[in-house]
Amino acid sequence: MKEINIGLLGCGTIGTGVAKILIEKKDLIISRVGASLNLKYAADIDIKKDRGIRFDDGVLVTDAYKVVNDPDIDIVIELIGGEGIAKDLILKAIDNGKQVVTANKALLAGHGNEIFKAAEEKGVDLAFEASVGGCMPIVKSLRESLVGNYIKSITGILNGTCNYILSKITDDGSSFESALKQAQDNGFAEADPALDIEGIDTAHKLAILTSLAYGMEINFKDIYIEGISGITPLDIEFAGQFGYRIKLLAISKNRGNAIEARVHPTMIPSGNLLSRVNGSMNAIAISGDAVGDMMLYGHGAGMMPTAGAVISDTVDLARNLLSGAKKRIPLLSYQSESIRKILVLSVDEISTYYYFRFSAVDHPGVLSKISGVLGKYGISIKSVHQKGRKSEGSVPIVMLTHLAREADVKKAFSEITSLEIVNDKSVLIRIEDENWQE
Domain containing 194 — which CATH number? Predict the structure, then answer.
């Protein structure tokens, strides 16, 4: 029987899950692939830790370069993470003609153009399903299932930590701090959760998706990013009264010669399927000109769901090796000569609907002053709500706007918050509502 040798770089949580599947489900994989996927090496700085798996003698090693330089290794799986040694090892593996699997979204978002170019020139495949959406086959869908579609938009909940926190605040009335601690206690959030709650992890994933969807170079630096740390239970309560739920969304829209690419807290109607994605689950809604609207839903993180996606990629590459196929599917969905630079619109150029909350002194004429500033910048108010006095001497004023341009909204918002009548932190949240009645 043909044997395909696997070299695993990084045996942490996900790496352990990958090793577990390769070892414990060896017969299942043989029955589906027609070859044995042999875990020859698993490199990690700690090879004495009990991972609950029985490795054959000599499999666990500390020298990662031994793995990528071994001429018998056919496929290298990189699960170290980060943008340092992981990049060096992947480029070395590519240079040595290895097929590569990675789940490293930060690396691909930051250095993907260089890495994919190296793989293209060397004629090797690089698979990265697990870098976006955990077990959801979004990469496979964009690269294979939707090849006959012009992608019109992608909207996704791509970070389980943020979704868990917002769900806890919404459904249980938890404070942000309490919800974050629960996420950490349950293993959904890191000790330092900044990459998650500030939206950076979601933006890494969106950068990869926009490239696959539109045939463009990866352009992480141009994505607008705003996290959830400023979202309060009060705003979630108001959102619910208006028929909305707040989610951290990755949003990309095809504007022809340009695209929108933004990550921020967003109010979406409670009837929208994405609003019902709770806990640590992820979901991605895709709109194509041929298929219309579709959605993928599943675990976006976790040992076994992510490991399952890594194994899927590994099996794809193994099948290519068995059939002698190379570069059967373009690395970034489009042929390399068709990938181009596409302008990512500044967030100031987008137009959408907005929710404002101002804490203003409880005096006559306050509302007219705020409305006057909005009118000065051409922002039309759809509705105004004064929800009763929440603290002595001040009252929350909540406004929903009609379609407005972001640049105008920012100017108006800044001017209003500097007024003496506004005496606490103001809040701005964007609204995505296809059924909004102008």
Answer: 3.30.360.10
With 0-12 / 13-18 / 19 or more C-beta atoms within 10 angstroms meaning exposed / middle / buried, residue 23 is middle
Name the token pair of 312: 């899927």
Angle at 342 between CA 338 and CA 344, to 5 degrees: 155
- 68 in Cβ contact with 76 (< 8 Å): yes
pLDDT of residue 363: 80
* Full 3-state SS string of 154-203: EEEECCHHHHHHHHHHHHHCCCHHHHHHHHHHCCCCCCCCHHHHCCHHHH
In this predicted model, what pLDDT tens digit does every residue of 100-149 receive, in sequence order?
999 999 999 999 999 999 999 999 999 999 999 989 999 999 999 999 99
- Looking at the structure, tell me whether residues 94 and 169 fall in a common domain: no
Query: Which amino acid is it at 244?
Result: Y
Q: How many domains does the chain have?
A: 3
In 11-169, DSSP assigns E strands to 36-43, 60-61, 75-78, 99-102, 126-127, 151-157
Residues 59 and 146 in one domain: no
Residues 23/28/31/35 CA torsion (nearest 10 deg): -20
357 found inside a domain: yes
Of 346, 349, 342, nearest to 224 by C-alpha is: 346
Q: Are 145 and 200 in contact (CB under 8 A)?
A: no
Q: Which of 2, 205, 247, 369 is catalytic?
A: 205
Whether 351 contacts 404, CB under 8 Å: yes
Q: What is the pLDDT of residues 21-70, one digit of tens each?
A: 999 999 999 999 999 999 999 999 999 999 999 999 999 999 999 999 99
CATH number of the domain encompassing residue 322? 3.40.50.720
| Contact indicator for 395, 360 with CB cutoff of 8 Å | yes
**How many H-runs (helices) and E-runs (strands) does the chain carry?**
14, 18
Question: Is 25 considered catalytic here?
Answer: no
Shared-domain flag, residues 333 and 365: no
Helix (H) or strand (E) holding 291: none
Domain range holding 406?
347-431
Distance, CA of 188 to CA of 181 (rounded, Å) = 10
| Residue 437 is assigned to a structural domain of this protein | no
Residue 89 CB neighbour total at 10 angstroms: 23
Same domain? For 290 and 381 the reply is no
Q: Return left, alpha or beta for 79; rule: phi > 0 is left, psi -120 to 50 is alpha, else beta.
A: alpha
Same domain, 284 and 188: yes
CA angle 237, 437, 258 (to 5 degrees): 95
* 436 within some domain: no
Question: Can you tell me whether residue 419 is helix, strand or coil?
Answer: coil
